[in-house]
Amino acid sequence: LLCCEVDIIRRAHDRNLITDRVLQTMLKAEETSCPSLPYFKCVQKEIQPNMRKIVATWMLEVCEEQKCEEEVFPLAMNYLDRFLSVEPLKKSRLQLLGATCMFLASKMKETIPLTAEKLCIYTDNSIRPEELLLMELLILNKLKWDLASVTPHDFIEHFLNKMPCLRACQEQIESLLESSLRQAQQPH
User: Fold this and answer.
1) Number of compact structural domains in the chain
2) Has residue 23 been placed in a domain?
């Protein structure tokens, strides 16, 4: 590396984290990591499923362009859905919510997280860093500071370990997961 280059430190896969006991714990934890009710019908008056899909697509593009860890996008979508299931939001603030959820998820999963300033640039400066930081506090409050969510992405390594024949399909599996996360999903 040149002295001006930075090699990002990534965690190594830990075989101890893909045991059956860990999988059972994750399945139990997943129950509390999901939105609690069909929020498009019960909570949100302005936000529609197609709006969620648009902001989710934008969020995925930002994560890809910034080369975020694979876990950032699913975790950000988890925060977005959980927030929308408990707090009404004006549609004019949906991109702010998406940017802030990426901000929080990158803090949880990245060694060098996305900055508020960088995320504001991705909104064409339609939001200010101060707004993002205020939204961060609101999200943390509404989610009761519970940011250690289990997402579908967390299960991929467990399933691939159990079915090694799928290892060759890992990229397609992750792509399908990203695609499904962009779709509006409601609990039954």
Assistant:
1) 1
2) no
Determine the distance from the C-alpha atom of residue 42 to the mean position of all C-alpha atoms in its chain, rounded to a whole number.
Answer: 22
Q: Is residue 80 part of a domain?
A: yes
Q: What are phi and psi of 59, to 5 degrees?
A: -60, -40
DSSP 118: H
Q: How confident is the model at residue 188 (pLDDT cuts 50, 70, 90)?
A: very low
How far, CA to CA in Å, does 82 sit from each of 70, 78, 126, 167?
A: 20, 6, 24, 31
Model pTM score = 0.80
3-state DSSP percent of the chain in helix, strand and coil, to 5 = 65, 0, 35
Residue 99 and residue 123 in contact, taking contact as beta carbons nearer than 8 Å: yes
Q: What is the pLDDT of residue 40?
A: 82
Smallest CA-to-CA distance from 55 within 152, 147, 181, 171 is with: 181
| Helix, strand, or coil (residue 187) | coil
Query: Has residue 108 been placed in a domain?
Result: yes
**Residue 140, domain extent:** 37-182
